[in-house]
TrEMBL record:
Name the UniProt record assigns to this protein: DUF1761 domain-containing protein
Presence of the UniProt keyword Transport in the record: no
Coiled-coil segments: none
Organism: Mucilaginibacter ginsenosidivorax
Keywords, ordered alphabetically: Membrane, Transmembrane, Transmembrane helix
Membrane spanning stretches: 6-31, 52-74, 80-104, 111-133
Pfam families: DUF1761 (PF08570)
Length: 134
């Protein structure tokens, strides 16, 4: 790893991309209804959440994930293909962690695939951005 090869603008864009993916993934056109149902939530529960805390902490964690992935990709040979592959591998890793915790929490397989799938897609896109934007 060569920290001088980390493109911090790409890290920020990669972190922001997780918001784009999440906005689509957890929207009514995709998995919102199933996610709400399997978490045993309702619209009032969602409205009661502290949006500043939720989105602020999500931004921080997204930046940490993107910076961490960028550190692993900080090599002169990194390109779009390797960035995408590394992001997908990181996504499989986090999918597995989500699945493990969710099984102990007695969550449904549908919820495991919704949340794990988001992680897989989001990290794959992050890796693609970081790999392409050298």
């Amino acid at each position: 790893m060569n920290p001088n090869l980390i493109n911090w603008a790409a890290v920020v864009v990669a972190a922001l991309s997780s918001f784009l993916v999440g906005g689509i993934w957890y929207s009514p056109i995709m998995f919102a209804k199933a996610w709400i149902a399997d978490n045993k939530l309702n619209e009032d529960d969602l409205k009661a959440g502290n949006k500043l805390k939720i989105f602020g902490m999500t931004a921080i964690f997204s930046l940490i994930m993107a910076a961490n992935l960028a550190a692993f990709l900080a090599d002169a040979k990194t390109d779009l293909a390797w960035g995408t592959t590394a992001g997908a591998l990181a996504g499989i890793w986090t999918f597995s962690a989500i699945a493990t915790m969710s099984l102990f929490e007695l969550k449904s397989w549908r919820l495991i695939f919704i949340n794990g799938g988001y992680s897989l897609v989001s990290l794959t896109l992050m890796g693609a951005i970081l790999g392409a934007w050298r």
